[in-house]
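Section: Multi-chain targets

For targets with more than one molecule, the full set of components is provided together so that the structure can be written out for the assembly as a whole rather than chain by chain. Components appear in the order listed by the source. The example entry contains two components.
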Amino acid sequence: MRAVGGFIVTRVFVPRDAAALAVGADAVAAALAPHAQVVRTGSRGLFWLEPMIEVETQSGRIAYGPVSAADIPALLAAGLLEGHATAHRLGNPADIPFLRRQNRLTFARCGEIDPLSFTDYRAHGGMTGLDRAYAAGPAATVQTVLDSGLRGRGGAGFPTGIKWKTVADAKGPRKYIVCNADEGDSGTYADRMLMEGDPFTLIEGMAIAAFAVGAAKGYVYTRSEYPHAIATFDAALAIARREGLLGAGFDIEQRVGGGAYVCGEETALLESLEGKRGQVRAKPPLPAHQGLFSRPTVINNVVTLASVPAILRDGAKAYHALGFGRSRGTMPIQLAGNVRNGGLFEVGFGVTLGELVNDIGGGTRSGRPVRAVQVGGPLGAYFPPSLFDTPFDYEAFAAKDGLIGHGGVVVFDDTVDMARMARFAMEFCAAESCGKCTPCRIGSVRGRETIEKIIAGHEVDRNLEVLRDLCHTLRFGSLCALGGFIPYPVLSALEHFPDDFRRLAHPDARRNAA
Amino acid sequence: MPLLQETDYGTPAVTEGEAVTLTIDGQMVSVPAGTSIMRAAMEAGIKVPKLCATDSLNSFGSCRLCLVEIEGRSGTPASCTTPVAPGMAVHTISDKLRRLRRGVMELYISDHPLDCLTCSANGNCELQTAAGEVGLRDVRYGYEGANHLSAPVDASNPYFDFDPSKCIVCSRCVRACAEVQGTFALTIQGRGFESKVAAGMDEPFLTSECVSCGACVQACPTATLMEKSVVEMGQPEHSAVTTCAYCGVGCSFKAEMRGDQVVRMVPWKDGKANHGHSCVKGRFAWGYASHPDRILKPMMRDKISDPWRETTWDEAIARVARDFKRIQAEHGKDSIGVITSSRCTNEETYLVQKLARAAFGNNNTDTCARVCHSPTGYGLKTTFGTSAGTQDFDSIEHADVVMVIGANPTDGHPVFGSRLKRRLRQGAKLIVVDPRRIDLVRTPHVAASYHLPLRPGTNVAVLTAMAHVIVTEGLVNEAFVKERCDMQAFADWAAFVAEPRNSPEALESHAHVPAALVRGAARLYATGGNGAIYYGLGVTEHSQGSTAVMAIANLAMATGNIGRPGVGVNPLRGQNNVQGSCDMGSFPHELPGYRHVADDGVRAIYEKEWGVALEPEPGLRIPNMLDAAVEGSFRGIYIQGEDIVQSDPDTQHVTAGLAAMDCVVVHDLFLNETANYAHVFLPGATFLEKDGTFINAERRINRVRKVMAPRTGFADWEVTQAISNAMGYPMHYTHPREIMAEIARTTPTFAGVTYEKLDEESIQWPCNGAAPDGTPVMHVNGFVRGKGNFVVTEYVPTDEKIGPRFPLLLTTGRILSQYNVGAQTRRTANVVWHQEDVLEIHPHDAQERGLNEGDWVRLRSRTGETTLRARITDRVAPGVVYTTFHHPMTQANVVTTDYSDWATNCPEYKVTAVQVSPSNGPSDWQVRYTALAAQSRRIAEPEDAGD
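Its structure, encoded as tokens over all components, is:
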């Protein structure tokens, strides 16, 4: 509550995150506008509760959700602005179990502040990381990131500090910071949420990177399917320039992709940024040596770069203290698909898949038993409940022929046909292949065709052998992770759900189906 | 020689870098750091299967056949994209790799037609080879799946087909178009399985930006891009390395043959001028050699109004000797002469000038180089001491600033143009001095830092103004000048150029180039690192052509840009053997090696060698011969391989001269325009039909090899020898190597040249005791003449001035697909790109005259008029019009004037004051000439035809 022109006006926080907008947040804001001061924020990531609004009261912010515009008159009448109890009242957001169980570092401000208020950003601890970096110097900044154990959150999990050190040590007058915001994995939205909900964190992270390696120019490559993120981030860039965060020594330009999944692959992204066809480059040379326009380039994912300010602010030790095994710090895990409590859950590595799906996610939205979970986007493996004891950790997932990727978790109930999911994987690969390397260009199409033959019950054993051979070719022969990882969903489906591939294997079954 | 198969190392050679030792399949290999594993393996004799890699292109890593295993590293990296590292242990074969490669190949073949036996690449297909190498035995996917087998063939290009059903999308064609040719006409369109090679915006090859250089065809590992000649004739079975007979770049080609027929000409990777690249002319436009217009039997007639009558060689030679001897008896020994050709071999040219000097007893020899690069010879000899360019073509790899003046390399010297563009894409800066906005000014990934669109005829003004900037702004390389140049000459020159009247500002009104551009260009050239100048006929074919060449030499000396790789003064020679024909003593005042006929010592060498006394006075130049003919004192001429009616200026004066002669002997492939005025026609042999040598623009002596017997019965040198013998001066050569031996014996710069050496590798002269392996870069430790000589270059405007009657300036040039007078290229499918000469005119000038695109226009100068169609374009500045001279119907030289270079008589082709007006048909001259040509070309039926 605050006094405006002699009136007491209550502040109500309404998300402007795309996930909230999709379920009517703008209408809710409009309905509230005559009665309260509406502040638009990012989302806290409790998507099943969106639109989730928060009322500023004497005893802190009180959340309500999900609310619709139609609910507003009744809510107002019931004392919404005073924080009174209603059926929608969720209480203090920090006490909502889904949030309480998290360890929010990277997303600490997301949903809390007006994403385009630089004052709010500073008031909530923003800019401290950059100040610490300036004070420590470039080499110490690189060392801090190295010591924190931060690994690339885009999926590859490569140690960020090593990448930065390579670029810092590279000779040459011109270096670049490139942020990969081409978030294309199914069931992921962390990058988008951050760019819509706390864009200055990303800008600060890039500024720290630029200072650490000696770059003067940064690019953010954002997927075209994120219009709100694009607009918010552009607005944030303008503010950051006005506030002096960008400008003289370092500036950032946002570029929008053309709708190709493969441009999330770092070298294809660089090609696209250069104005060329988004086609994967062979490595070496590594982007750290010859990246954008053949200059040494740090290319990191949004979450990676956005994690850096907190690391610099709190120190490497504090970050490293969180996590599991060689996976240090927190990971914003994104629950999606057929899950009751869908949303973003930032937590230290080590939480098990079962905890995520059943305890945190609350099982399926349909109420039916969970049959499979795909972790790590369309290239990730399908895990059955028997593997739910797998801790969320790069190495633990790799040991079970899976990957955590960008942290997407997509839940399926027992109605899923895993042979069709395997077919979809190949179809996805075929649709998104850049076409450069042979295994991916032709193999994905042959993979889809072969699985279709299997589904149709045509020479199932022989075609399963062909499929396994093809997956071997794709896995070890592809130029990039798209073709290289597409065997994960296919082989995991085959491994864990073999019966789905044999439904029409027997002649009788085919006859019945016909 | 059996079919030459060059080894493909997969990735380009790395020349610099410390040696790295590794083991590949247990074998120790040492290669320079940066070398790919693939190349290292290949150099050790281990062939890793590959499809997308080829050593003319950067590695790409797409086919995934060349995967290897490296001890201590995970995965299976591609050997083409992975550089070697010290101590690395590589395995190119294992069960895993075998399985992977078969897997990849199985995918390829699942989308490839199974028509090997009827495929044009059968027996020479990399896909077929690779399938064999990986042991593919089965395609388990079947053939009912998605595929590209019904993709339609694009046969639009006259020389090659594009059959996308056979394409494996390796991108070699796309990369060749980009990396080697630099045209960027090809792309991969679509993505994933829909990825396909597309020309331009998915157009037919013919109408796309494709320049038909053949690099894509060369790069294609399958029959997707295939020469139509191979489709028709089958794969070649033997080959010989020879030299292209088109421009002065001097590309080496493999003539790939079946029997005595050429199947295709393939650029030779070891060719020192072209390194495996080619252009549409050398690569494809050789069909003129078997064109029905070729004359294969000698012909004679009494009067030029008579029809031709076929005859025997003996009769024809006897007639020539009889007529020439009679003319000399009646009009004196100076009444006949010869014109040598820059198209023929050195040996042939040498013999023709020897014929004049030894058999005719006069110095009446001149060459078509008179009308192109004679100012180069004069200018560079005066300043540096040698009548030749200073560099090899490889020098461009080290240039930082390139100044192109009066040359259009992407059209005129396309293979060098591609190398230049590649260097520019690597970051070298470009200055273009040209009245037209030539392609180089802005072409994909290349943009000139400066384009000085000067008014035709003002080269000297602009070059002197650049010198003014360099001198007055303290940009002279004083250390170089002090050490290497004549200081008195420098001081005189510096004082001259520093005069305010030579400033860019003062000359702006003449040259029409903003002074700031001239200043910027001069600063860039002087301070931008290695500065290299390349120039063409836009410099020489002016009344101040020699002055401009010397102005260029002055700039290079003043900035120290002489004597090392990356710099220099480089004339881009128009024809295949301009350099050689000049070297061989074709000019009336010079014996071979540019030694004056007045020099008793030099004459003594030849008098001893030839056994005759030689005239110490220079003979007649071509224009003087023609003048003397009109006047009646010059009455017989032997013209080998040149068409002076079409190529020399002021056509009506040329024809008047020829018509006045008693015996005109034309020795050529075709009944050219000059033959319309000839009494004896001796059929010539093409470059495919004889042995010999050409010398290219970089002084490189390249072997020309006979790949088929002369279709006429005799190589040209044999014909010249027969004339000489019939004239009573005996010559007894049995092979051109004997002629070269004589050249080497008598000419110091060629002293070390032998066919034995040339058969090993081409040589750049000087090649002698001091430089037994030849001389890639000249003037390295000092100028040939001693001290570099600065020459004052006073700008004198040409007398050819615009006025109310002739308000426009015409300048001329050539186009990529056509060559010179077009005698060859017009008799190939190249005409699809350029069927007629057109007049480029600025929209403003067109508007003023009410002209529309494609209109017939009359082009008139004070000497004559012709008609052609207009092309409206702002490539030319207002006030300037431009055309080519490839087609005899246009006869652009009807309008050019008799003005010429003050020093060498090189015609002022590049500046003619003209008027352009609408027209509704050919000019009277064209009508008359066409009728005369038809009349003159008649060939009588053999009298015994009825038997």
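The longest strand of chain A covers residues 330-337.
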